[in-house]
Amino acid sequence: MSLEPKPADIPRIPGALRLYKISSVITGVFLLLLCAEMLVKYAFGHELELGGPNGFLAFSPTGTLTGVNLSTGILIVHGWFYVLYLFSDFQLWSMMRWPFTRFLLIALGGIIPTLSFFLEVRVAREVEAFLADREASAATLEARP
Length: 145
Prior knowledge:
elongated; mainly alpha; membrane; cell membrane; transmembrane helix; DUF3817_TM; Integral membrane protein
């Protein structure tokens, strides 16, 4: 049996959904950047460097970086956006009162490449459908004499 969101939480759901959608896309993009960076680092032995001797932005051999290591920067930024993604996942999950397994599935979106993009579409469609149904039923109740 699925639980319904609490009436007090319903006005806050669109904002939580907006935060989830934004953090989902940003986390997914940085996860893809991180995967590409790891491939370059471990397959080719280079890291992305900003302001080093090889130019403004260049791939330099690992261990020879003298400028800003953007590879580490991508890793750190993805980590912090994943924390925001987990927060938005938890917020939406708790307002919608979904089962815990749903929270875990959505949380995997920030760990498995491209999953956050697919989940973002699916979750947004489901929440928006719930809100539209809720609005339609409220309008039907108001229209009754």
